[in-house]
Amino acid sequence: MPQDHAPETPPADPPPADPGDIARLRRFNRAATSAAGVLDASFLGRGRPLGESRMLHALGPDGDEVGAARARLGLDSGLASRLLRSLEAEGLIETVRHPEDGRRRIARPTARGRAEFAAYERLSDAHASATIARFGRAAPDLLAAMDRLACALGADRIALRVADPESPEAKACMAAYYAELDRRFASGFDVDSSGDPEAASMRAPRGAFLLAEFDGAAIGCAGLAGPEAAPSEGGDGEQDAGRTGEIKRVWIAPQARGLGLSRRLMSLAEDVARGLGMTRLRLDTNGALTEAAALYRRMGWREIERYNDNPYAELFFDKPL
Amino acid sequence: MPQDHAPETPPADPPPADPGDIARLRRFNRAATSAAGVLDASFLGRGRPLGESRMLHALGPDGDEVGAARARLGLDSGLASRLLRSLEAEGLIETVRHPEDGRRRIARPTARGRAEFAAYERLSDAHASATIARFGRAAPDLLAAMDRLACALGADRIALRVADPESPEAKACMAAYYAELDRRFASGFDVDSSGDPEAASMRAPRGAFLLAEFDGAAIGCAGLAGPEAAPSEGGDGEQDAGRTGEIKRVWIAPQARGLGLSRRLMSLAEDVARGLGMTRLRLDTNGALTEAAALYRRMGWREIERYNDNPYAELFFDKPL
DNA sequence: CGGACCATCTGACTTAAGTCAGAAACTATT
DNA sequence: AATAGTTTCTGACTTAAGTCAGATGGTCCG
């Protein structure tokens, strides 16, 4: 069961963009580059070379293996070692051998190191706070623009994973999903009347709940609900209800839309369904969610007859796996 | 007549921002910082150290004084000189003495240097084009977010200047202004019926046209229209029409709103009006432009009786200087 | 046990970037 | 004409960052 799907590859030869748009993007680049130093100046201002600060930050408050931190920063082993020695000389970290493999070493911040780490965090928070204050009344709007760009610029770091449908992240996504349906449906939306699949149906071994995360923030989800009895192994031929799953609660945060994320989520959901022995998937949706229906059609779903009494559902699709 | 006004100073002690907002901003910072290298990678990829590339870029295709380029990059004179020597050794620039001051020197790209400069530009454009292509159908939305953030991040580099009301930049601003009025007024907007002041009235010595620019792009304007006869010098006491100016065509690009720019423009317009000997300003506006009317009141304008037959005007203000 | 393999470390070296003091060439001022 | 002040340049030095070739001490497997 793959835990992630590569983002869609762009078309082979991109046509040159509009010169005006190029100028706009380059203007942003200049502004962002000249702001970049200011943006995360937390590494500076504590009288330590950038490399050492980055290493301390890469180790995290609980420490990590030397090799892992080195790989994360993309450093040469010699350089990494030297940075660790300086941090050690300053009394900020201590290194111990790995309990299971004497070759590997673990670098862990000391109390002083953790204090220093916290100081970086405070500096960074204070800096962010000051920036937001400077934005004044434009702040909500600018933060929304930042969310949007952060997702787009880091689209290849959006990771998909299986999560528990009752985890806080999953619940937050679903709450955002319900709130959006309530806004978009002319008649509003009430969860209770829509036949919400219980959490157990979206948990192994029956199904799964998929979460898309970017830099620690949940920005999308998809539920795969399986039937009550686990499908029997090996019995093929008949296409019974025991081998049909249902896709529910597909939601993408506004700032992550248009980046091909729902396609990645749906595609992973199909893989997971196949891994659970399902042979067919179905789903219902509302006519107001036009983008969703268009995507389903593009991904090979066929429109079928109504299969439930969900009052909000108007369109029904299925797809053989 | 000051050419620029400092941006408004933020309130003394900013209260700490919402932790969620801090996290959002820091997420953007991380994304932008890690994208920053990629964002303007044009300096790399041509086998030259960053410093030399930056210097070549700072000189521009037509060359410049050594001191000017050095100040722009904020470099030590020794370092700057050494960078120039390496560029000279590579045959990319040549230096000549300043025609009027033998101490100063002018560094000018050679044909090869200009070709190199153009290569950087092409690389940068190609990179921007590829980024836009990667954005796919989300591009228009993302570019708008970039415009918004570029203005906000570089707000202190938004410069005001006096421009000709018939320059292309001024015309572009006014066209955008008219288009917006047409969208916002229930009845639409037609320039011809609104008593457009002729260009001559917004040009010295009668008046002025003010333009706000960010990184070469016009993002706002304000017209100061003076009466036909230049005000007579010295004759004080009476407050005749010959000493009353009118503010027209105040417009701020959507991406630059909420940054205190209209206040800066209006304040400069008042200074310019005083410099032209005006003792009173007046303006008309529409009730649909609620933000505008609120700003006028905050800046000390008083509502007065209708003074023209502009069918779009509903509110009238004046301000003694 | 020996050898292949591995993670980490050390020492020697390179490059980019920048600082600082002062020299050289020039202009402006008294 | 002497002097003070510019602008640019040169040489000597420093620091940060990174590369590379082994050395060291460990694991794993036949």
TrEMBL record, chains A, B:
Keyword match Ribosomal protein: no
Pfam families listed in its UniProt record: Acetyltransf_1, MarR_2
Protein origin, superkingdom: Bacteria
InterPro entries with a match to the protein in the record: Acyl_CoA_acyltransferase, Bact_Acetyltransf, GNAT_dom, HTH_MarR-typ, WH-like_DNA-bd_sf, WH_DNA-bd_sf
Cross-referenced SUPFAM superfamilies: Acyl-CoA N-acyltransferases (Nat) (SSF55729), Winged helix' DNA-binding domain (SSF46785)
Family annotation (Gene3D superfamilies): 3.40.630.30, Winged helix-like DNA-binding domain superfamily/Winged helix DNA-binding domain
Protein name (record): Transcriptional regulator, MarR family with acetyltransferase activity
Organism: Albimonas donghaensis
